[in-house]
Amino acid sequence: MFTISLAGVPVGIDNRYPYVRWLCRNYIAEDQTPAFTVRAADQELAAELAEAGEMSPAYAESLCLYRSICMKMPLYGAFLMHAAVVEVDGIAYVFTAPSGTGKSTHVQLWLDHFGPRARVLNGDKPLLRFEGNTLYACGTPWQGKENLGCNEMRPVQGICFLEQAPENAIRKLPLGQASRLIFKQVLIPREEEAFNCFWSMLDRMMNTVDFYLLQCNREPEASRLSYLTMRRKQDAENQERIPAAPAGR
C-alpha cells in the first residue's frame, strides 16, 4: 500500500501488483495522509479481465483502481474527462473526442509546431478541478498508451471537440451543443453525493469555459488554427487589463 497525490488530493492505493506503484512513481506522496483508499475487489478485477480479453492482471488492476478513484474524486473537487491536454506557455488546451478520432495525432501536431514551448500534460485521462474561479487540468499516472504526461496543474484556456475532416475548420459551440457532447467524455459517479458534487462542477465548467468544435485533418495547419482561435480570448482579456495611457501622452 502507498499514497499518491492527484489534483491535490492524497489517495491511498492498496495494490496487489508492483506495476501499479511503478505506474504512479511520479505521484508518490508518502508523507501525506490519504483522504480515502481504494482497492480492486476480486470480482471487479475478474470482470475487467473478462471484458478486456488480452490484458495482464497488473494492468487490469491499474484500470480498476483509477475507476474507483475517479468515482470518489468529485467529493474532493475533481472529476475525470477522457481527453488529451497539451500545455503551451503554461496554459492548458483540452482536446476530447471518442477513442480513435485522433486526439494523440492532433496533440503531436502541437508538439511539432511549438517545440520546447509545448508539452503534454496528460494524453488520455486528466482530472479537472477548480481553484478559485479558474478551471485547471491536472496530470495523472493514467495518461494513455503513449504514456505522455507530467505531474502538473495548468489553467484551462478552452475545451475542443475533435472531428476528422478533409479541411480544417473551427467554431465556438453554443452551450446546448457542448452540453450534449460533453456527457460522452466524462465519468459520471454512481453514488448520489459524488454525483451531486460532479454535477455542480460540470455545470460550473459549462458556464465558465469556452467550447469549440474543430473539424480537422492531420496537417500542421490544424494545430495553428486551433491554437490561434482558443488563444484569442486570452489575448482579449490581457488587452483589457492594460491600463489606458494618460491623456496627452
UniProtKB/TrEMBL annotation:
Listed Gene3D superfamilies: P-loop containing nucleotide triphosphate hydrolases (3.40.50.300)
Domain of life: Bacteria
Protein name, entry field: SynChlorMet cassette protein ScmC
Organism: Candidatus Faecalibacterium intestinigallinarum
